[in-house]
Design goal:
The structure holds two protein chains of two kinds. Chain A is 42% helix and 20% strand. By secondary structure, chain A is of the alpha+beta class. In chain A, helix 1 crosses helix 2. The termini of chain A are far apart. A two-stranded antiparallel ribbon of chain B has the order 1-2. Classes of the chains: A alpha+beta, B mainly alpha. Chains A and B meet through strand 1 and helix 5 of A and helix 5 and helix 7 of B.
Chain lengths: 132, 211
Amino acid sequence: MAYSEKLIDHYEHPRNVGSLDKNDDNVGTGLVGAPACGDVMKLQIKVSPEGIIEDAKFKTFGCGSAIASSSLVTEWVKGKTLDEAATIKNTQIAQHLALPPVKIHCSVLAEDAIKAAISDYKAKHGTAKAAE
Amino acid sequence: MTGSGAGAPASCWSCAGPVDAALPFCPTCRAVQPPRPLDHFARLGLPVDFALNIAELDRRYFALQRQLHPDRFATKTARERAISQSQAVSLNEAYEALKDPLERAIYLLKIKGVDANPDGCHTVKDPTLLMEQMERREALMEASTPSAIEALAREAASHVSESEAAIAAAFAAGDLDGAGRETTRLKYLVKLLEEARARKARLTAERSSAA
């Protein structure tokens, strides 16, 4: 199977790998998994008092497409507001990385991870509303 | 093919006599029969149950494989050779699906109407399971000696056995939701165990080439 250059680049040089302090009030953590492949993905955002995502980190144990999808999402959300970040769709991720059809679920996982991180942050700040 | 499931009467392609769908040979003319749409348990003559006896599974599989192996049909007609080929394929599929506990659990859930292995847009939202797996995978990443990895692999292997026992108990109690949840957990545990073994093999190889 031929993978796109962007995908391979994110896989070989993943951006923003690591962890933020999940107990920090300004950090939202999303933890999701795909049962079909036994993958687990953690995506964290650090939000400024102005509501801007100033840092994002991820740690993914899974296939190359799952790693690339989460790496891409951490790049995309930095500098965005929570509402802007919440509009990221798996189709955009899949398109950008040219994911093959069997790997579309990896982009779904990344979308779910950012949504979960946003709702975790909102829950900490008492502004919880269902992030779909 | 009648397509109406196990035990449905069918007729032999060769002598047109009646054939039990579960039998690979015609009782009248002994001609090999095409594989009928049976579930994997029925194909191997086993009860539909998660807790199967592996020795019995092996015994039945190897007995059928001896009878149906395409080599035995080398001197038969092209049609019989083709039929024995598809019988052997169906038999192997059934055996592969049943011999591995994780595959067996997924398959059994599927024939009971629960899709434990959706490959589409479905994510696990079980924070306890995910947290536990994230921690174990991190511990595995950080383990730097073969013995440390070995300890994690042993722990994972014992969790796999516990999980298989829990799945058997859930099926025995008719608790399909519980069996489904535990099957997802087993999937993660098996993955962890595979990763641990792969990492140990890599590390051992690196050390021996460095030495």
